[in-house]
Specification:
The chain is an alpha/beta fold. Strands 4-12-11-10-7-5-6 form a seven-stranded mixed beta sheet, with helices on both faces. A four-stranded mixed beta sheet has the order 1-2-3-15. The longest helix has 22 residues. The protein is globular, with a radius of gyration of 21 Å. The chain starts with 15 loop residues before the first strand and ends with a helix.
C-alpha cells in the first residue's frame, strides 16, 4: 500500500525537532553535527538569529502579494545581487529547478530575439545535475534520472566531463549555449579547472554562444567566494542560484547580463510565488551576513582547516577513503568503502553527511562552522571509519 507521502525518497530513520547553528536535535534530544546543511541549503546554519528576526518581523507584516505589484524587498535583493555579480538583471523563483527553467527559456528566447531561432541546442556535461523538471533531466541526461520519463525534451547535447575536444566537436550551427556547474555536486564534488572555464568562455565568444553557470549548489559563499566562478576570473552570461541564497527558505534566482536577457520582454515569463516579500526579506538577511566584511575570509580559513583534517583521515584510513575533492566548504570524500555505508556509520556517531555519485560522501557544512566544530566532526569521522574497518576484518 502506498504511503501518504509519495515514496520517492529512501529516507534515513531520523527526524529532527529543532536546530542550533551547526547542530540538529532529534526528538529524543540527541544532537547531530550537521555536515549536510540540508544539501548545501542552510548556509548560515539552523535558527540563525538574524534570519529568525527578519523572518518574524516580515511574517507579521506581509507574506505575499504576487508580482502584479511592486515588491520593495525584491527590488533591493535584485539590486544587491547585481552589484555583487556580473549580472544586470535578476528573475526570482522558488527553487533551483525553476531558476534553471528560466535560464533555458531565456537563452533560447535570446536567439529568437536576434533572428536566429534555429539555435536551440544546449551542450551539457556527463555527471551534471540541473534539477528534476523535464528540461532539467534532459540536461542531465543520466539514465537514473531519465528512465521511464520519455520522450525527453529535445535540444540537449551531452559531452564527457572535462573533454574539450568533444565539446568543440559538439558545437554546430544549432548550438545556443554551454551549461555547466563550476563544481559538480550530485555528480561527486568534481571541480571544473579554471583553465577549462576560461576555454568555455573563449569558445562561447568565438561562436556567439551564451555561457550558463549553474551555481545552485556551489554559489553564495560555498567555495569561499560569493560565486564559485569568481576563482577563475570568468563571467557567464546567465547564472542560476538557489539553496544557500534563502538560508533554508525556498528561494532561487536567475541572473543575467542585459544582452542575454534582451528577449525576455513583458509577459515572456512569470511566477506566482517567486520573489514574494517573505522570501526576499530572508534573502536580504542572508546577504547581510554573507557579504559582511570578513565572512568569506572565515569560510576560506575554516575550509583549509577542514580539508587538512580530511586529508589526514584519508591517510589514516586508506581502506575506507581514497581522496579529498572539492573547494571551500563544498568537499567530498572519494570512498573505497561503499559511500552509503560511510554515511550510515556517520549516523551512528551523530554526524550528518550526504552521499553523491562516483562513490563520494559530500561534506557541506553551514558556512558559520568553527574550527572547534570541525575538529569534533573529524573525530567523529575517525570513529566512523574505524567502525567500518572493524566490520570488514
Amino acid at each position: 500500500m502506498i504511503t501518504p507521502v509519495l515514496p520517492t525518497y529512501a529516507r534515513a530513520p531520523l527526524s529532527f525537532e529543532r536546530g542550533e547553528g551547526v547542530w540538529l536535535i532529534a526528538e529524543d534530544g540527541t544532537r547531530y553535527l550537521d555536515l549536510g546543511a540540508g544539501i548545501a541549503v542552510n548556509a548560515l546554519g539552523h535558527a540563525h538569529p538574524h534570519l529568525v528576526e527578519v523572518l518574524r518581523e516580515q511574517a507579521g507584516k506581509l507574506w505575499h502579494t504576487s508580482n502584479l505589484y511592486e515588491i520593495p524587498h525584491q527590488a533591493r535583493l535584485a539590486e544587491r545581487l547585481v552589484a555583487a555579480s556580473f549580472a544586470d538583471t535578476v528573475f526570482f523563483t522558488n527553487s533551483g529547478t525553476e531558476a534553471m527553467e528560466c535560464a533555458v527559456k531565456m537563452l533560447r528566447k535570446y536567439f529568437s530575439h536576434i533572428d536566429q531561432p534555429e539555435r536551440v541546442e544546449i551542450i551539457t556535461f556527463a555527471g551534471a545535475f540541473h534539477g528534476r523538471s523535464s528540461a532539467g533531466i534532459a540536461a542531465s541526461g543520466s539514465e537514473k534520472m531519465t528512465r521511464g520519463f520519455g520522450p525527453l525534451l529535445p535540444g540537449f547535447v551531452q559531452v564527457p566531463f572535462g573533454d574539450l575536444d568533444a565539446l568543440k566537436a559538439a558545437i554546430s550551427a544549432t548550438t545556443a549555449a554551454i551549461l555547466i556547474e563550476p563544481v559538480q555536486g550530485e555528480g561527486g564534488i568534481r571541480v571544473v579547472p579554471d583553465s577549462f572555464l576560461k576555454a568555455l568562455r573563449a569558445l562561447c565568444d568565438e561562436h556567439g554562444l551564451l555561457l550558463v553557470f549553474d551555481e545552485i549548489q556551489c554559489g553564495v559563499g560555498r567555495t569561499g567566494r560569493f560565486f564559485a566562478h569568481e576563482w577563475a576570473g570568468v563571467t557567464p552570461d546567465i547564472m542560476t542560484v538557489a539553496k544557500g541564497i534563502g538560508g533554508g527558505f525556498p528561494l532561487g534566482a536567475c541572473l543575467a547580463s542585459e544582452r542575454a536577457a534582451s528577449g525576455m520582454v513583458l509577459g515572456s515569463h512569470g511566477s506566482t510565488y517567486g520573489g514574494n516579500p517573505l522570501a526576499c526579506a530572508v534573502g536580504n538577511a542572508v546577504l547581510d551576513v554573507v557579504l559582511a566584511d570578513g565572512f568569506l575570509e572565515h569560510v576560506r580559513r575554516v575550509s583549509g582547516h577542514l580539508r587538512q583534517g580530511l586529508e589526514g583521515l584519508v591517510a589514516s584510513h586508506p581502506g575506507v577513503f581514497e581522496a579529498v575533492r572539492g573547494a571551500g566548504l563544498m568537499l567530498g570524500l572519494k570512498c573505497v568503502a561503499v559511500n552509503a555505508d560511510v554515511v550510515k556509520a556517520c549516523y551512528a556517531e551523530q554526524l550528518i553527511t550526504v552521499p553523491a555519485a562516483d562513490n563520494v560522501v559530500r561534506i557541506l557544512p553551514p558556512l558559520i562552522i568553527t574550527t572547534d566544530e570541525i575538529d569534533e566532526a573529524l573525530a567523529r569521522f575517525d570513529r566512523a571509519a574505524s567502525a567500518i574497518e572493524k566490520d570488514t576484518i
